[in-house]
Automatic annotation (TrEMBL):
<protein>
    <submittedName>
        <fullName>DDIAS protein</fullName>
    </submittedName>
</protein>
<dbReference type="Pfam" id="PF08646">
    <property type="entry name" value="Rep_fac-A_C"/>
</dbReference>
<dbReference type="InterPro" id="IPR012340">
    <property type="entry name" value="NA-bd_OB-fold"/>
</dbReference>
<dbReference type="GO" id="GO:0005634">
    <property type="term" value="C:nucleus"/>
</dbReference>
<feature type="domain" description="Replication factor A C-terminal">
    <location>
        <begin position="9"/>
        <end position="93"/>
    </location>
</feature>
<dbReference type="GO" id="GO:0005737">
    <property type="term" value="C:cytoplasm"/>
</dbReference>
<dbReference type="GO" id="GO:1902230">
    <property type="term" value="P:negative regulation of intrinsic apoptotic signaling pathway in response to DNA damage"/>
</dbReference>
<dbReference type="InterPro" id="IPR043522">
    <property type="entry name" value="DDIAS"/>
</dbReference>
<dbReference type="InterPro" id="IPR013955">
    <property type="entry name" value="Rep_factor-A_C"/>
</dbReference>
């Protein structure tokens, strides 16, 4: 894999999924496996209590420049300004909203959040570091 970093100016065509946050290992940023009490990182072996798991943004986008289509995934705290809160705080808001609305899947993003993300990103042009 090349270590050359390039900039890509592209417009967002669509948001690829509605799951914007994930439980992330604090050591290697890989997705954690969670059960009701514990978390485990399959990549580096880190373990801990589920309540102490940290969360990270992951936004998958379909983009286009003047010539090609690209699937780009944006990770981490660079998305904090767009969401207005950290990924951990957003997860708490989603969990609280879902509990109030009776949603059984505590990690499901409310439809209004998905619409807000689509409004914020689709049709807008960004410069991505790839």
């Amino acid at each position: 894999m090349s270590s050359v970093r390039r900039l890509l100016a592209a417009s967002v065509i669509s948001v690829q999924n509605s799951c914007f946050i994930y439980p992330a290992c604090q050591n290697c940023f890989s997705r954690l496996l969670l059960d009701s009490r514990r978390f485990n990182c399959l990549k580096c072996g880190c373990t801990g209590e589920a309540k102490d798991a940290s969360y990270r943004y992951r936004l998958s986008l379909k983009t286009a420049d003047t010539n090609d289509l690209f699937e780009i995934t944006v990770f981490g705290s660079c998305l904090d300004p767009f969401f207005g809160v950290t990924a951990g705080d957003l997860r708490r808001c989603i969990r609280d909203f879902n509990q109030l609305s009776g949603e059984t899947n505590n990690d499901a993003s409310p439809g209004i959040l998905v619409q807000a993300v689509e409004t914020c990103f689709i049709g807008k042009r960004f410069i991505f570091g790839v």
